[in-house]
TrEMBL record, chain A:
CDD domains (alphabetical): TM_PBP1_transp_TpRbsC_like
InterPro entries: ABC_transp_permease
Keywords assigned: Cell membrane, Membrane, Transmembrane, Transmembrane helix
Protein name: ABC transporter permease
Protein species of origin: Amphritea pacifica
Main location: membrane
Coiled-coil parts of chain: none
Protein location: Cell inner membrane
Pfam families assigned to the protein according to its UniProt record, in alphabetical order: BPD_transp_2
Length: 308, 363
């Protein structure tokens, strides 16, 4: 394997991992507040279709990305209203949101299939791009990839080193205790849900505006679900989400690269690696009751009823 | 099945009930023929399912209110498909097209339950008294694409994004390799299996992985235009699949091998209306207008385009046949002798690569 090939693989790894990273960061924050939103796929697709339509009509990628996030937020608010105000089951609501988003995005996007747009171009950071091996991987990407680095840093700092992050975790661990000491449980969970929606919308926009600049029904092809698995895989730690997203990215391109090179490795085997890893992590986590209690937010998936 | 498709089915169902109620009062001849279509992908894929839906629309345009069409898209291959096909048959559809290989067994099962309904299954090989098959000889178009690719490549590396290792896909890869063997034996065909008919992200990844390895012409047997776009971005050539993909890569687009299903659908509907339909294996290609190459990239040298057109003309009149002997397999053994041809029954079961392909078929 020569240097060029490794450079290219690393570059593709980051690019492939980016949409996963963005969605997973949103879902991580959401789950830290004790809310399990399985609607990632639906929110991504809505972000993808809205971002694409807006960019196609306005010619502005920036506007496309912003409205993709707005679409994600609106979708997440539907989820928020149903689970928070009506105390509906989060799992069922999230699943419904995915089904709804898949259908609605197909419906509003049907007129826009087969229309090309100019996608987001990479921005090369001078000098650094030319570094061997890691240059292209870290400094030859497009703006959303750079943004994903920043988002990771922000989420990492927020969860681990900030006071609002502490509030978020307290709400996710025990909303009743948090409520008793006067923390705003509802507000915190709403904000977390909205952040999750914005990230899913952004990731969707990334797919339809940068990754493959086109709209096609169901184009996220299960990436929202992979992101959900990723959060579990990462045992709710931001730094592991980052590594996991890139690892999933690597696994999903490696079997393509190997086939092109003519290696006799079963492509099917390579393709299942990320999922296998998730299952293994799940088994390890659940084999030890104390450990699994420690890593997952205690009240994940439980609705909160404010008691007077 | 998604909500809107479900709605569509329900509306179709309700309409069907109303119509059958009406028909008892009015003359029976006025009943429209109800035609159902089952698609594996979204009609918005701009590829395989999209083209089938174009065919459905041309049936509507041709027969007007003499037909009533229903479609169900995004149907998973397997148990789900059987339920969908059963529902269509149950709701009074007289003719049902199922348009993906994996619908073969479900279609056969339902066909046995509804002997009075006519079924046609695309790309399969199982038949019954009321179940016919139809398939396009996509390999004819692929062969022409393989020829053009062999002439425009500079790196002598040609990429092929493949979906699943089923005979139809293997056969088309072979058609391209046979064109390479004949016109540019130095060219190497790199095959990448993505294990999906439709995943734009993955198709683009595969295209990029190939281009990283020096491929400068990409062919695909998957349904999204993502590879075409990736090729356009990096300034190489690509061949469109199923529908005309030129808008996704004005410079990259060499040509598209387009499936036109309309002619077959119109012929079949007419045969069912006239009562002349019988179960058979309909194999149609360039001659029948089912496989079309709408245009060539202007940057292809004129003599190459001219020869490609000769090939098309030859395929139409039968003088050119991609699978004419001598053909050797990967081990170098002669499988088809000089002067012989692989007939369609053999091609339907093709599970081996021809000489020149270096990789193995995934098991």
């Amino acid at each position: 394997m020569d240097i060029d090939l490794i450079t290219n693989i690393l570059y593709a790894m980051i690019r492939t991992g980016t949409p996963l990273l963005i969605v997973a960061l949103g879902e991580l924050v959401c789950e830290k507040s004790g809310v399990l939103n399985l609607g990632q796929e639906g929110m991504m697709l809505m972000g993808a279709v809205v971002g694409f339509i807006v960019t196609l009509l306005s010619g502005s990628l920036l506007l496309g990305f912003i409205l993709a996030m707005v679409a994600g937020v609106l979708m997440s608010l539907i989820f928020g209203l149903i689970t928070m105000e009506l105390s509906a089951n989060q799992v069922a609501t999230g699943l419904a949101l995915t089904i709804f988003g898949t259908g609605l995005s197909a419906f509003i996007g049907s007129e826009f299939v087969g229309k090309p747009i100019e996608g987001l171009d990479p921005v090369f950071i001078p000098v650094l791009t030319d570094l061997p091996i890691i240059g292209r991987m870290l400094f030859g990407q497009d703006l959303i990839v750079y943004l994903s680095f920043i988002l990771f840093g922000a989420v990492y700092w927020f969860i681990n080193h900030s006071r609002p992050g502490l509030v978020l975790k307290a709400v996710g661990e025990n909303p009743h205790a948090a409520n008793a000491i006067g923390l705003p449980v509802f507000k915190t969970r709403y904000l977390a849900i909205i952040f999750g929606g914005a990230m899913a919308g952004l990731a969707g926009g990334y797919l339809s505006l940068a990754y493959t600049p086109l709209w096609a029904e169901n184009m996220s092809a299960g990436r929202g679900w992979i992101a959900l698995a990723l959060v579990v895989f990462a045992s709710w730690k931001a730094e592991r989400v980052l590594l996991g997203a890139w690892l999933f990215g690597l696994a999903s391109i490696l079997h393509l690269v190997f086939q092109g090179l003519g290696f006799a490795v079963s492509p099917n085997l390579l393709a299942i690696l990320p999922y296998l890893a998730t299952v293994v992590v799940l088994v390890i986590l659940s084999s030890n009751q104390t450990r699994s209690r420690l890593v997952a937010p205690m009240s994940l998936g439980n609705p909160f009823h404010a008691r007077g | 099945m998604k909500r809107r498709q479900f709605n569509k089915l329900v509306t179709g169902l309700a309409a069907g009930v109303c119509l059958s109620a009406l028909s008892t009062l009015s003359a029976q001849a006025a009943d429209p023929l109800k035609v159902g279509f089952v698609y594996v992908g979204p009609i918005g894929d701009h590829g395989w399912s999209y083209q089938h839906d174009q065919g459905r629309k041309s049936v509507e345009a041709e027969f007007g209110d003499k037909v009533q069409t229903t479609y169900v898209e995004n149907v998973a291959e397997g148990a789900d498909a059987q339920r969908v096909i059963y529902n269509l048959a149950k709701t009074g559809h007289n003719l049902i097209f199922t348009t993906s290989f994996g619908f073969m067994n479900p279609t056969l099962k339902v066909a046995k339950q509804f002997p009075n309904v006519v079924f046609e299954h695309a790309t399969g090989y199982k038949m019954a008294k009321n179940l016919g098959t139809y398939i396009s000889k996509t390999f004819e178009g692929r062969y022409v694409a393989g020829y053009v690719a062999s002439q425009v490549t500079r790196s002598n590396k040609i990429g092929y994004i493949a979906s699943f290792p089923i005979p139809e896909v293997i056969r088309d890869i072979n058609a391209v390799q046979l064109a390479l063997n004949k016109y540019n034996p130095a060219a190497e065909l790199k095959v990448i299996w993505v294990n999906s008919w439709f995943d734009p992200g993955k198709e683009a990844d595969a295209a990029n992985a190939m281009m990283d390895q020096g491929v400068d012409v990409i062919l695909q047997h998957t349904d999204s235009p993502a590879a075409m776009q990736a090729a356009e971005r990096r300034g190489i050539y690509a061949v469109g699949q199923a529908s005309d993909m030129s808008s996704f890569g004005p410079n990259a687009h060499l040509l598209s091998v387009v499936d036109e299903w309309g002619p077959h659908y119109i012929r079949t509907v007419k045969a069912v209306m006239d009562g002349t339909w019988e179960a058979k294996a309909n194999v149609e290609g360039m001659k029948e207008g089912s496989i079309v190459i709408p245009g060539f990239n202007e940057s292809i040298p004129a003599d190459v385009v001219a020869h490609a057109k000769e090939l098309i003309a030859g395929i139409k009149d039968g003088s050119v046949y991609p699978f004419a002997g001598p053909i050797k397999n990967q081990a170098g053994e002669l499988v088809v002798a000089e002067g012989e041809r692989l007939n369609y029954e053999d091609l339907e079961k093709m599970n081996w690569y021809v000489e020149g392909i270096t990789s193995e078929i995934p098991k």
